[in-house]
Design goal:
Low-confidence stretches: 1-8
CATH topology: Rossmann fold
Largest sheet: 5 strands, parallel
Distance between the termini: 44 Å
CATH architecture: 3-Layer(aba) Sandwich
CATH class: Alpha Beta
Mean pLDDT: 88
Number of domains: 1
Number of strands: 5
Helix content: 25-40%
CATH superfamily: Response regulator
Radius of gyration: 16 Å
Structural class: alpha/beta
Strand order of the largest sheet: 2-1-3-4-5
Shape: globular
Order of helices and strands: EHEEHEHEH
Length: 122
């Protein structure tokens, strides 16, 4: 019986992708590994400027990285998806700026890893 050639798998629907804006490669890898385990497609970015062309259902962003709050809010306005940011728990200025700018959920970095599986399923 002749073999049927396998079709290349289609790229994931952008409505299922979680966009991750994190400069720290180790932390980004940890997020990607958790997403793979949950069968959630992830698009990882390191530069806030790259967010302008990114599509997805959710944005996860490191708020301690310069330029991420403005980029995240612009992404939210374009995509209508929620923005979840993580930040050092002692950085009260960044927490206040992010909330005032419209970041949907601001989480201390220490709790973020614990909540990540739940966030990816949201």
């Amino acid at each position: 019986m002749p073999e049927t050639p396998q079709q290349p798998s289609a790229p994931p629907d952008t409505r299922t992708i979680v966009v991750v804006l994190v400069r720290d490669l180790m932390f980004s890898s940890r997020i990607a590994a958790t997403a793979r385990a949950a069968n959630v497609p992830v698009k990882s970015l390191r530069d806030p400027a790259a967010l302008a062309g990114a599509e997805g259902r959710l944005l996860i962003v490191d708020l301690n990285q310069a330029g991420t709050i403005d980029a995240a809010v612009a992404w939210k306005a374009k995509s209508s998806g929620p923005v979840v940011g993580f930040v050092s728990h002692v950085d009260s200025d960044t927490i206040a700026r992010a909330k005032a700018a419209g970041v949907d959920r601001v989480i201390p970095r220490s709790r973020f890893v614990e909540l990540l599986p739940e966030l990816l399923g949201a």
